[in-house]
Amino acid sequence: MARSAGVLLSITSLPSPYGIGTIGKEARKFADFLKASGQKIWQILPVGPTSYGDSPYQSFSTYAGNPYMIDLDTLCDEGLITKEELDSYDWGDDDGKVDYEKIYNNRFEVLRTAYKNFKMGDQKKFSSFKRKNCKWLKNYALYMAVKKSFDMASWLEWPDEEIKMHEEKAVEHYQRKYKDEVDFWKFVQFKFYEQWESFRAYVNGLGIKILGDMPIYVAMDSADTWANPEIFQLYDDGDPIAVAGCPPDYFSATGQLWGNPLYDWDYLKETDYEWWFERIKAASRLYDITRIDHFRAFASYYSIPYPAENAINGEWIEGPRIKFFEMMEEALGKIDIVAEDLGTLTPDVTELMEQTGYPGMKVLEFAFDSGEENDYLPHKYTENCVVYTGTHDNDTVMGWAETANPNDLRYAREYCKMPEDEPFNWGLIRVAYESKADTAIVPMQDILGLGKESRMNTPSTLGDNWTWRLKSDALTKELADKLKSMSVNSGRLED
Q: Which residue out of 393, 408, 422, 434 is catalytically annotated?
């Protein structure tokens, strides 16, 4: 990738009068800010519909867009709902946080009103959308319709065994039974994709690329596992044989039990990885660059027998490795990919990174706890990497500085040659920009110098994650000028 700088900000974190960020005018305002700041990349979190816990990494579909991100003012401009109707709902009283309970309770009522009015108008574009996206859309829409009829239970808990197991006659029966409800969920996706195409065109028109995030695993509670059980390691009744996670390490004595179903890589290989390549092609429809989360699982993945209380008794199993990516490039052409390669890198992962040539990730918050031996120190970087001050899973830089070991903090200041009057966050941003890494990405919270209260996510916890939002008055000209000056001075933007 060409030398550049960018900002990490979830779409949901944008300002909005309706409780959560959308792909409407505030998204365009932020893109304008990025342009004025000399930024060439906007990195976002996954944009799929979220399930219990509101994590964008646990979605009902790998293809569908998040209904929360549909811009309601745009629906208002289209005459599908009135401003008075929108203003009648309680969207929360804190513009710095998402109140997911209120969003969940109100957002779908609004979308159903819009759908009711939409049905009275021209359906040509909608019909075309349904035809073009039939392969994934029909399963997702039916899944959501049936799921709603069973009080949003996971498909593993559906009382009708035939639809639970995706039997053809049951699928046809429920398609007829819930025809209008199925069409509602298709309408929601139609509006998401219609708005997304407009949003992406605007961002790209400013010379900015969207760097999107693809979780390597899909949720157990998803249309993907329900409709395609053959591609996962599942028993005949749908229960997983083994699930994903990470082994015990310095941070957790029992490891991490994620619970996602594992892929049946032997079956996928027999089908020339068609499902996976379709997924990557779909991601390219949304993003200019795709970050693959937990990339190391393509080299070897951690398999935990189901059921398990923790991740202690798992084992590493060989993944598809370089052959997968050779076949992918042959099928799809060159795809711009960033590989999330954080954590302990075993030789097989290092080899796969070298073979693919994908840029990996370097995080400055990880750099200062083991002296000169630390691979995250900038003097050890190659050009082919993306450097971050922190990620969505880390504390903010200022939050980290508050709790870091004093010796680590002292070393960080010395290494970064920070003058006493330089705020710690700006010292790390400067070092990231000045590093040889081709790309430097900074979370918006770090640019604003916010503390731990603005952290996006604490892994393996529930509650108060994914809620942080940007205040509408935060994007000042002074801030844009400062970032632009740093971009120019570090060779990440031509003046």
A: 393
